[in-house]
Amino acid sequence: MTTQTLHENPFSLVLSGGGALGIAHLGVLHDMERNELKPAEIVGTSMGGIIGACLSIGMREAQIYEQIASFVKVSNWIKFSLSGNAIVENDKIAEIFSTIFGNRKMHETDTPLKLIATNLKNGHKRVFDAKDDVCIKDAVLATMAIPGVFEEHTIEGEVYGDGFLCENLGISEASYNHVLAVDVLGEHSFEKALPDNFFKTHNVLEMFERSMRLLIYNQSRLTLAHTDKNVLLLEPETYRYSTYQFHKYEQIRALGLGLL
Questions:
Q1: In whole angstroms, what is the distance from residue 165 CA to residue 131 CA?
Q2: Distance (Å, rounded) from C-alpha 144 to C-alpha 160?
Q3: pTM of the full predicted structure?
Q4: Minimal CA–CA distance to 151: which of 200, 238, 80?
Q5: How do strand 158-162 and strand 113-119 relate by DSSP bridges?
């Protein structure tokens, strides 16, 4: 599929999760604006959900980038917790999302939006969309809640965590036959050689993150293998960066440029 096909047909934009690696989505959005490509709907998971939600209310890529640049100052959003199930409480993050989205509901977007989260009680996938009487900021807090890192989020009595636990690349939720999918945890998200650092601790940490990337990558491959959609898949080369390196937002954004 080519960009010309996307010009001629309504398409779903699917943005994957990936922590800081998801900032590469902005490079793709930049090129979409340059090519005057506008999705008919947006499907997002985790970081892809945050960026997709911003796009859905009419924000331009430069505006989203500005928010990300502010977001990476850790003191702006980190509030460590000594109790509960996560390292980081959501108070400060919730304030940022309240500033961006206000009290807008999922049906009050310029472009239809779907955000993928995971019900932490039963493990089932939960897709928040226009049918739900839910605020965008709440659905975003749910889709990005990495278990053990960010505080889980409760909506209507159910407890939700990050969508990557069930579907990191939400192609199966696309309503349109043509799909532009951006997977920052795709084939180019891990090095082909195993870590070989002097310190064993570094090797262990790198192997853990590599294992998580491989798990998610294979999850997405399975989804792609069973879809009947016409998918244009973009996989930025994110292997040089870690999922927590938000301070490298300029370099990571550049990874998404020139893929269209």
A1: 23
A2: 9
A3: 0.89
A4: 80
A5: antiparallel
With CA atoms as reference, report the closest residue to 42 among 100, 114, 107.
114
Given a contact cutoff of 8 angstroms between Cβ atoms, the answer to whether 182 and 31 are in contact is no
pLDDT for res 202: 56
The tens digit of pLDDT for each residue in 125-161 reads: 999 999 999 999 999 999 998 765 667 889 999 999 9
Query: Which regions of 135-249 does DSSP assign to beta strands (E)?
Result: 153-155, 158-162, 178-182, 230-234
Q: Tokens for 181? A: 């999918």
As a whole number of angstroms, the distance between CA 5 and CA 95 comes to 40
Q: What is the pLDDT of residues 33-55, one digit of tens each?
A: 999 999 999 999 999 999 999 99
Q: pLDDT for 164-208, tens place per residue?
A: 999 999 999 999 999 999 999 999 987 766 656 655 455 566 667
Look over the chain and give the mean of its residue pLDDT values, rounded to a whole number. 87
The rounded radius of gyration (Å) of the Cα atoms in the chain is 17
> Which own/partner pairs from 245-250 qualify as long-range (CB within 8 Å, at least 24 positions apart)?
245/20, 246/19, 246/20, 246/23, 246/68, 246/71, 246/72, 246/74, 247/72, 248/20, 249/20, 249/23, 249/65, 249/68, 249/69, 249/72
